[in-house]
Amino acid sequence: MALILTEDQLILRDMARTFFDEKSPVERMRSLRDEKDATGFHRALWKEMGELGWIGIPFPEAVGGADMGYGELGAVLGECGRVLAPEPFVSTVLLGGNAILLGAPEPLQKELLPEVCSGERLLALAFQERGRFAPTEVETTATREGDGFSLRGEKTFVLDGHVADQLVIVARTSGGREDRDGLSLFVVDAQAAGVEIQRTEMVDGRNAATVRLDGVTVGADRVLGDVDGGFALLDRVFDRATIGLCAEMVGTFEETFERTLQYLKDREQFGVKIGTFQALRHRAAHMWTELEFARSVVRDAQSALDDDRDDASACASAAKARCSDVAHLIGGEAIQMHGGIGMTDEEEIGLFFKRLKAAEFTLGDGIYHRDRFAGLRGY
To answer: In the chain, at which end, N or C, are there fewer CB atoms within 10 A of the end residue's CB?
Structure first.
């Protein structure tokens, strides 16, 4: 496993940093939030990322992608995390896009993914029904009707669900409420009869929605993977999405730490810089070591995916467990060290704290992933 970026990855990272510095400073995210923008991000900027080839990084050339790896994608996602970019990488690329890539028949891939890669089509994965990450707790039903299925139920915290063109719905075709067997995935048009979408507001300004399904008809050609065997597909999608989310979190860690360190160097108290206080130096050193640890674990997880290693799932959970813990540490310490102004909305460090707090629980918190890691390792 290489712990440093390759020359190509460094070039990609530097290009992305310049792009986001010029076109997506943190003020843009604040402005979109305060103006309650109907989309929540800039479609023109998203298409520009598509033209640069960034959206298509993990997809094959046959469907319009760049056929690159998660090391390259992580270089871009890290820069997204540094500026709190609200564009739909997690929903469209990591969740919905991977579900289509890993589970759809070739004709459906060629129908949907080229426009995903170009930034013209948005996807969302609707799987969650509770306030916590519990992918097997599914009560949404899909019952056979003729040659297709009829879907009924309600999904919550559907990232970018309010603007998605297609929704990938996780529904139960058999089994009990928490059974792994009996889950199936369906591609549903967001404008289909019986689909009701209500936008919700996340604590960090990220876009989400509640999706209600009332007798939505889906053809058998829109099923991803095997009927009743969708959990195995879902698990692979979550591995990839989790590793991508962790790469974005590392970028947010870096920016949060650097801003906090600069504040310690600039802020004076009792006539001296507060960064000269030994207790604060020790705490800053602790933040840095945990950041470096998280970066190494995430790089290993990216390598596991790109090298198609057998331990990729365990690496994904190890990375998310570590990143969730570090999000709690660095986000909390940043607020503490900024003192009272860190609690105000005017000070940007609070926006980073909120993004880290939301990311800490997205796709499973540290407790969930430590338990999953232990199970995968046979403990």
So the answer is: C
